[in-house]
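#struct-help
A.M.: can someone run this one for me? Single chain, 133 residues.
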Amino acid sequence: MSRDLSWVLNDVLQVPGARHAILVSADGLLLERSSEIGRDEAETNAAAMSSMQSLSRAVAPFVGGGGGVWRQTLLEYDHGWIFLIAAGSGAYLAASTAPDVDMEAMSFRMQQQVGALGRAMSAAPRQSTFSGS
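D.P.: on it. Structure tokens below:
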């Protein structure tokens, strides 16, 4: 059964300056998108974000201190930022923002929403309704 998780992504956009959010699978498939981004644009960016997280993980040892573990990627452009973080096993949350976004507030909100996504995507264990003799 498919779940509509757009409400979780739309909540990321409550930070002033946030524009769009997408949930991406590790293999580049669009899992969900916020309501203000079109499907075609979201799918194109999902593929790109999958590649970006892969590159970010590959260069983590460049930071030093042992193996290095990737946590977040920030990309700066003339007209804003892209934030990319892990959102559970094999999923990534990406958000685009205006250049003057409060970066700390954006990162914090995204981390909160990753927790909400985990709860929304997991199902409670089934309870047995069988009452045997």
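A.M.: thanks! Residues 122-126 have pLDDT under 50 and may be disordered.
D.P.: also worth noting: The two ends are 33 Å apart (CA to CA).
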